[in-house]
Design goal:
18 strands, D-Maltodextrin-Binding Protein, domain 2, 3 domains, Putative aliphatic sulfonates-binding protein, alpha+beta, about 475 residues, transport, five-stranded mixed sheet, six-stranded mixed sheet
């Protein structure tokens, strides 16, 4: 029989342990990490889709110090545009979100109207020249350039980055936006059907629709944002109160974005395929953006041009009466968290900040030739191959395509770089100049090709003629 004193002591000890456990349980905190994504806006991929699908946030969330016994409630919400994402953030249902510069400015304005603040914490992808937004026309349209759109009706998602681009393009032509063109609002999912049915004369849109519609054969791109030479970007935002309360979590989110960026840079084909599986947006389109020498540059640093893009978007939104009052960009942009995440990843943020290079293309090319001029690079994605083949010139890529098809193979897609702007193009929709030495140079616009031919000599041809010429040479 256990003596009474020993039994009492044991009971006290047990009750003490139970009480301690109850206190620890009470102390254990559940922290929500709610992230709004735009999966189909594929330039947000490193701030949303890839982090979610590869479970990178779980890998980097803090688990020591004040976070030692924390339970994380990770929530993901996907949106087709920035406006509803912002509504959820302002309503307190999301802590972080990814969107472009124009909707990001509206995010800041909406928070301010509610008496609160949001922070633009990082860039994810962008172009200091403006590439990524664009204008398309129906495939059979006679329009070859933006100048041909005077008197036409152009649709665009209102208050989007593409809307800002469209207004700048109209202004650059010296047109009156109220008299010389008719601008109507139209969401991309509606515009696609309208273009296919020839119900609209032109459509301006953001990533990836100015490339997606041409890829699907329902439109031609006749204007790229780089022609406006106005910076544009997509980035990540945070509720300021959440960021101040949990700065380590916001840093962890950006650390996950840095890892997603590293992975897609190393294997753009693999993760372009993942983007297609999740969104339905073809891998060929995703690679156009995220592959080497891509249409935009994945860039997590706050370059002066991107800060200026925010200022421009705020001014434009005020002009459109979509935002009231000013937003202090220097206060809205907060680079503390991306600097901290970069340091954790061993990245020299200052060096990245001064680096404007496109994602590099390794040399030599698939034929063993050195790549001396990236403005003449072309690429071939062969069906059944996991890696895209780079070539030093369009004629080399088309010769390889001819040999491939003679052997019974086929290509998923051929890419070329615009000789003037350096942007990546779907080669099948480009114009070419074949010079006296039979070298090919690719251009988005027929007018640019004609100007180049006049200045340097040569003939202007389309993709079919360029292919046929290289096929004849290959057959000799």
């Amino acid at each position: 029989m256990i003596p009474f004193r020993r039994l009492a002591a044991a009971l006290l000890a047990t009750s003490g342990l139970l009480a301690a456990s109850a206190i620890d349980a009470a102390r254990a905190e559940t922290i929500r990490v709610a992230v709004g994504t735009q999966d189909t806006t594929i330039n947000c991929a490193t701030g949303g889709l890839l982090i979610r699908e590869l479970k990178l946030l779980e890998k980097f969330l803090p688990r020591d110090g004040r976070y030692k016994d924390v339970t994380y409630d990770i929530q993901w919400r996907n949106f087709t545009s920035g406006a509803p994402l912002t509504n959820e953030m302002v309503a307190g249902k999301l802590d972080l979100g990814a969107m472009a510069d124009f909707p990001g400015s509206l995010n800041g304005a909406a928070f301010a109207k509610a008496g609160r603040r949001s922070l633009f914490i990082s860039v994810l992808s962008g172009s200091v020249r403006g590439s990524g937004n664009g204008v398309v026309v129906p495939t059979a349209s006679p329009v070859q350039s933006f100048a041909d759109l005077k008197g036409k009706t152009i649709s665009v998602p209102f208050a989007s980055t593409a809307h800002g681009l469209l207004l700048r393009a109209v202004k650059a032509q010296g047109w009156d936006p109220e008299r010389d063109v008719t601008i109507i609002t139209q969401a991309p999912e509606v515009a696609g059907s309208a273009l296919k049915a020839n119900k609209i004369e032109a459509h301006a849109d953001f990533v990836p629709f100015a490339e997606l519609f041409p890829w699907r054969g329902i439109a031609r791109k006749i204007y790229d944002g780089s022609q406006a030479d106005a910076p544009t970007f997509h980035g990540a935002l945070a509720d300021a109160a959440y960021a101040e309360r949990y700065p380590e979590i916001v840093t962890a989110y950006l650390r996950a974005a840095i890892e997603a960026d590293r992975l897609i840079a190393a294997e753009p084909e693999t993760y372009s395929e993942l983007i297609e599986r999740v969104t339905g947006i073809e891998a060929e389109v995703a690679y156009l953006f995220h592959g080497p020498l891509g249409l935009q540059t994945r860039d997590l640093t706050w370059k002066p041009e991107y800060r200026q893009a925010l200022k421009t978007s705020i001014e434009t939104l005020k002009l459109l009466k979509k935002a009231d009052g000013d937003i202090d960009v220097d206060r809205f942009v907060d680079d503390r968290f991306i600097r901290a995440a970069s340091a954790q990843a061993g990245i020299d943020y200052a060096a990245r900040l001064s680096d404007y290079a496109q994602s590099p293309l390794s040399a030599p090319d698939a034929a063993g030739r050195p790549i001396a001029d990236v403005s003449r690079v072309a690429e071939l994605w062969v069906k059944g191959e996991g890696k895209v083949r780079p070539y030093a010139s369009p004629e080399a890529a088309l010769a390889a395509l001819a040999d491939l098809e003679k052997a019974g193979g086929s290509a998923r897609v051929v890419y070329a770089q615009d000789r003037n702007s350096g942007i990546k193009l779907f080669a099948a929709q480009a114009w070419y100049v074949r010079d006296r030495e039979r070298r090919l140079s690719a251009f988005l616009l027929k007018g640019d090709a004609e100007d180049f031919a006049r200045a340097h000599g040569g003939e202007v041809i389309d993709f079919a003629a360029a292919r046929a010429g290289e096929a004849r040479l290959s057959a000799r």
